[in-house]
Structure formats: C-alpha cells, structure tokens
Write a structure and sequence with these properties.
- The protein has 118 residues and is mostly beta strands.
- It has strands at 2-7, 10-13, 18-26, 33-39, 46-52, 58-60, 68-72, 78-83, 92-99, 105-108, 112-117.
Length: 118
C-alpha cells in the first residue's frame, strides 16, 4: 500500500503561483512514477504531469507546458508541482497518484483544491 497526501492548494489571482506537495508513505519503493492530475467541476479528470523515479524523466500536458514544473524529493517520498502563471482555467481539484510498473495509477491522494481568480 502507498498513502499519498497532497497539500499546498489555495486561492490565487491569475498570474500568480502555487506549489503543491505530495507526501508518500508506505511501500513507495514499489511505485515507478508519480503523477499529478486535476479535475475541474463538471469535467473529466485530466493528466497534468508525471515524473519517473528512476530516470527523472518528466512529461506534461500541453496545457501546462512552460508554466508547471514537476519534481521529486531525493528520498523518493515527496513530489512537487510548481505552478506559475496560473490561469482561471487551472482551477480544479489536484490529485497526486502513484504509478506501478504496469503503467497503472494504483494509488491516489484525496486532492487539494486550487482556485484561480480572474
């Protein structure tokens, strides 16, 4: 089992920044990568960013490229999402998730709310 707890969400004006954190505990060594997802009210959950633990390789959704940066803690138990130049359309509940070696995100946090005002 892997437990994930997100923090760092809040209310920010457009153009501002927030840094989300995801603390992982439990069998974290069993995860292959960590990802961030978001779900806006009335919309489907969407992928935001991913980091592979072993290689540090990162992937981003086109909508956040150049504005968001995902990074992982040295101890492999924390992942961050630095969000700059925030837009109202970034408003959503943000989740972190742990990906197993089979490519499936098997563990999810409870989410942290990000609200960007115009």
């Amino acid at each position: 089992q892997v437990q994930l707890v997100e923090s760092g969400g809040g209310l920010v004006q457009a153009g501002g920044s927030l840094r989300l954190s995801c603390a992982a505990s439990g069998r974290t060594f069993s995860s292959y990568a960590m990802g961030w997802f978001r779900q806006a009210s009335g919309k489907e959950r969407e992928f935001v960013a991913r980091i592979t633990w072993r290689t540090g390789r990162v992937f981003y959704a086109d909508s956040v490229k150049g504005r968001f940066t995902i990074s992982g803690g040295i101890a492999k138990n924390t992942v961050f999402l630095q969000m700059n130049s925030l837009k109202p359309e970034d408003t959503a509940l943000y989740y972190c998730a742990a990906m197993a070696t089979d490519g499936n995100y098997n563990y999810w946090g409870q989410g942290t709310q990000v609200t960007v005002s115009s």
